[in-house]
Design goal:
The protein has 136 residues and is mostly beta strands. It is built from no helices and 12 strands. It is globular and about 35 Å long.
Length: 136
């Protein structure tokens, strides 16, 4: 079972909407994650900035967790995160996927692997203090 530090349920996130997550990684954080899914276990988008964890340094790793298994990982070498400094991640949801906008404005797309048109579970893990979550 996956364990998350903070979970927000029953907050609809539908095609055409934008999610904004604001937080601060701990001063000695190795990694943290922002997740969007159908539940805490069925994750359509897992965004995992890694300062130094699991063999990755200053890399954003994205994946999905469906039917009990992690999917293929996508690695982004653009790393605009600093330990102890506030960040903002924006995710724009379209039918084909998620447009992720990192704190420095760098954008990339991650496929909507489950294909749902609505998600309602947000979870956050690792060494991070979440400050704000907005969907509009």
């Amino acid at each position: 079972m996956i364990k998350w530090g903070m979970v927000v349920k029953n907050m609809p996130f539908e095609v055409g909407q934008k999610m904004t997550a604001v937080g601060v990684p701990n001063h000695n954080a190795e990694q943290f994650s922002v997740n969007i899914g159908l539940s805490e276990q069925e994750i359509a988008l897992h965004i995992n900035p890694r300062f130094n964890a699991n063999g990755d340094e200053k890399t954003v790793v994205c994946s999905s967790h469906l039917e009990g298994s992690w999917g293929e990982e996508m690695r982004i070498k653009n790393f605009p995160f600093q330990q102890g400094e506030e960040f903002k991640i924006i995710v724009e949801f379209s039918e084909s996927g998620f447009m992720v906008i990192l704190p420095d404005g760098f954008k990339f797309t991650f496929l909507n692997r489950p294909g749902a048109k609505k998600y309602s579970c947000f979870s956050f893990g690792g060494e991070v203090s979440m400050k704000r979550l907005e969907v509009d």
